[in-house]
Amino acid sequence: MIRLDLDIDGIEAIVSTLQPSEKDVKIALKRALNKMAKWLSTRTNRGLSKELNLTQKILRRRLKKSSIITTSTGLSIRLFYGLNDVALIHLNPKQTKTGVTASKRKVNGAFISKSKNQVFKRVGQERLPIEKQVDVIKQKADSYLENTEFSSFEFQAQFLKILEHELKWQMKWME
Question: Which of 45, 92, 115, 175 has its CA 20 to 30 A from that of 60?
């Protein structure tokens, strides 16, 4: 779980400068948090893509953002990453003489089934059973998300910039 806390002094400085109503602050804060969730998901998507050697498109489909949740400590937004195994068929596989190559992954003895649209490998010497070939990403992704330090200074600077913009827009719109 990624946890980023904001310094209240920067928010109070913006509020004291602009002097918006409480309603304007709440609306602008929610909009700013939604934009920051998008900003954070973009950053983590890029990092995970490099870490896992996957395209961002595959990871973006697995990302879900929930709405803003009010907790006892304040407002929070949850980002959910689906870290189930990735089927090799989604990695643009190519059939080779020795097996299948998908991205930078090589599976000897595998084949691409056109009718099932999957990459399979025979379990034994017989024709059946076969098993679907996947790339396991959960362990690498979890370690990346837990160990990566997101710059709270960079996050806070971006948040304050967006919050100030949203407050100005909200106050102008409400006039």
Answer: 115
